[in-house]
Amino acid sequence: MLNKKIDTPHAMQMTGKGDSMAPLIKSGANLILDISPEQTYRAGDIVAFVGYRGNIVAHRILFSALLPSGHQQYLLKGDHNIGTSQYMDAERLLGKVQKIVYPLYNIDLATPLSSFVARLITYSGRITLAHHWFYTVNRITVFCLTLVLISNARRRILKRGKK
Predict the structure, then answer these.
(1) Quick one: which of 67, 91, 63, 66 has its CA closest to 77?
(2) Which residues face 13 on adjacent strands?
(3) Please, are residues 74 and 86 in contact by the beta-carbon 8 Å criterion?
(4) Residue 57 maps to which CATH number?
(5) What is the pLDDT of residues 64-85, one digit of tens each?
(6) Phi and psi at residue 26, to the nearest 5°
(7) Torsion region of 103: left, alpha or beta (phi above 0 gives left; psi -120 to 50 gives alpha)
(8) For 116-149, how does the pLDDT look when each residue is reduced to its tens digit (9 = 90+)?
(9) Residue 118 CA from chain centroid, whole number
(10) Which domain holds residue 114?
(11) pTM of this prediction?
């Protein structure tokens, strides 16, 4: 993913590359990150971090845990990945994805609908980690919930055009 600062304070824009978060984040999508230093994270958030070979990666938080040492740690997983997950210290996270920008529509991840969808995708991802046989149901769930977000984003554009 490519990154660059944008005019808004504490924000950064990245261009998605790869399919670990498909179908919600497709290759070529622009991601707007909130990189404020006082950022808080919770299960369901999509976060960016520097991964293997220095690439910037975006994955969803499935679990969070406070370690006895006082460090916050998160279990991250790509929505499209079957069993690939990794623990990440809070200090290694770059920021939280706030918006996914496509040429014809934007998906705002700060809306109540987006938060609800994120919770459902997170629960489905947790089940898949424990039961790999659930992967096909998880893929269908993620696909259908992504369609809900895309339809809502496009409906908002059409509504604005009619005013």
Answers:
(1) 63
(2) 4, 32
(3) no
(4) 2.10.109.10
(5) 999 999 989 999 999 999 877 8
(6) -95, 155
(7) alpha
(8) 999 999 999 999 998 989 999 999 999 999 999 9
(9) 8
(10) 2-162
(11) 0.91
